[in-house]
Amino acid sequence: MIAAIGVEDLIVVDTKDAILVADKSRVQEVKSLVARLDQQGRTEHLSHREVMRPWGSYDSIGQGHRFQVKLIKVNPGESLSLQMHHYRAEHWIVVTGTALVERDGKEELVSENESVYIQIGQRHRLTNPGSLPLQLIEVQSGCYLGEDDIVRFSDNYNRVQEAG
To answer: What's the predicted TM-score (pTM) here?
Structure first.
């Protein structure tokens, strides 16, 4: 919640990453703010915590040294790429729905409160075979967790070696 009392002519932008409060007459200064963020090595202006994808979305809900935690939402009937990672392993815990998980050519259904482990270098794909949204917690661990550590073998959305 954001509350303001006794103020006028403000612009308030609230995202999961940050909150911007600016006087309407000074909104053009956002460019210099972004330049300062860049100079400080911050990344809020480059990527957002919640990212939309053609199959659904993910929300980076926590991270630390050598780990990252995401809430992944997969729309009914949609699939992520058949992919692998050179530097990270993934542990998926299904929160709602049912996941069809492919690992090295073998498929298995994973239901609510069940989990599956994806090893570094293992080919894998996540599909929502159901009619309701699939939600899972993904715990990534490894020496590098960037979105560019995705090698795609097959993709329903014609993405070629781009992040996500």
So the answer is: 0.78
